Amino acid sequence: MKKSIWLIIAGLLFISLLAASCSSTPTKIRVATDATWPPFESISEQTKQVEGFDIDIMNKIAEKEKLDIEYVNVAFDPLLAGMAQGMYDAAISSITITEDRQKDMLFSDPYFAAGQIVTVRKDNTSITGKDTLTGNVGAQLGTTGAMEVEKIKTATLKTYDDIGLAFQDLMNGQINAVVCDNPVALGYVGKNPDKLKVAGGIFTDENYGIAVAKGKTDLLAKINAGIKAVKSEKLIEELSKKWLEK
């Protein structure tokens, strides 16, 4: 009888230890990104994995804060909708912090300053910046670039799921200009200097943040702590040289 009781007690202790062990296992954090936005996020031709400035930043944050993350590649507009619905834990995808977006999701402290700029074909002399935009103008669906084009009465917005397709149409003469974040624009101009040029300067003042699903304040605190650590170690400057100054 006593032996049976001890066996039961031993079994209960084992189960409790197993439960404690399972509960301490890190939860996988699903991080959404739209990998069509080089040099911030894209698919590596060699590894077929997501890579870029944002991905390196998120990986560093995860390393600092011991976060177990996995990336989910999804188009930008569904990414924002998914964050609003709590489908993903977080998202990093050159996401500008705006008041409207803050209604649907939490945002980390800013980690990068950017702005919108106009890109045109090399031979275009009529479009010199935002104020002279006319005709069809390309931008990625759901982005602040698309929002800015919609404000311009002389321009007609044409949206794309992939910003690369917008630049392809621009080079083929199917649209007059592309509006997007300046580092992305400069990247495409740098790769096609005989076909493209920027027109005018940056005309918005924006900050990128990491989006976090509403209610996940603990995760937000860890991400902010990670951003602070990354900034203090000058890692953002290092990654800027790696990805943005090619």
How are the SSEs placed, and which strands pair?
Blueprint: H1 2-23, E1 29-33, E2 36-37, E3 41-43, E4 50-51, H2 53-65, E5 69-73, H3 76-84, E6 90-91, H4 99-102, E7 106-107, E8 112-114, E9 116-121, E10 135-140, H5 144-150, E11 155-160, H6 163-171, E12 177-181, H7 182-191, E13 196-199, E14 206-208, E15 211-212, H8 217-232, H9 235-243
Helix pairs in contact: 2-8
Overview of this protein structure:
By secondary structure, this protein is of the alpha/beta class. It folds into two domains: 124 residues, D-Maltodextrin-Binding Protein, domain 2, CATH 3.40.190.10; 84 residues, D-Maltodextrin-Binding Protein, domain 2 (3-Layer(aba) Sandwich). 40% of the residues lie in helices and 23% in strands. The chain contains nine helices and 15 strands. The strands form four sheets. It has a five-stranded mixed β-sheet with strand order 5-1-6-15-7. It has a five-stranded mixed β-sheet with strand order 11-10-12-9-13, with helices on both faces. It has a three-stranded antiparallel β-sheet with strand order 2-3-4, with helices on one face. The longest helix has 22 residues. The radius of gyration is 23 Å and the shape is globular. The chain starts with a helix and ends with a helix. About 4% of the residues have low confidence.
From the structure above, extract its key features.
single chain; 246 residues; alpha/beta; D-Maltodextrin-Binding Protein, domain 2; 15 strands
Total discrete domains: 2
| Biggest sheet: strand arrangement | 5-1-6-15-7
Q: Which structural class matches the secondary elements?
A: alpha/beta
Largest sheet: 5 strands, mixed
Strand content: 15-25%
* Average pLDDT level: 91
Q: Unreliable segments (pLDDT under 50, ≥5 consecutive)?
A: 16-25
CATH superfamily of the largest domain: Periplasmic binding protein-like II
Write the CATH architecture name of the largest domain: 3-Layer(aba) Sandwich
Cα shape: globular
| Rg (C-alpha, Å) | 23 Å
CATH class of the largest domain: Alpha Beta
Helicity level: 40-55%
Alpha carbon gap, first and last residue = 76 Å
With helices defined by DSSP (H or I, 4 residues minimum), what is the helix count? 9
- The CATH topology of the largest domain is given as D-Maltodextrin-Binding Protein, domain 2
The helix/strand series, from N terminus to C terminus, equals HEEEEHEHEHEEEEHEHEHEEEHH
SS elements, strand count: 15
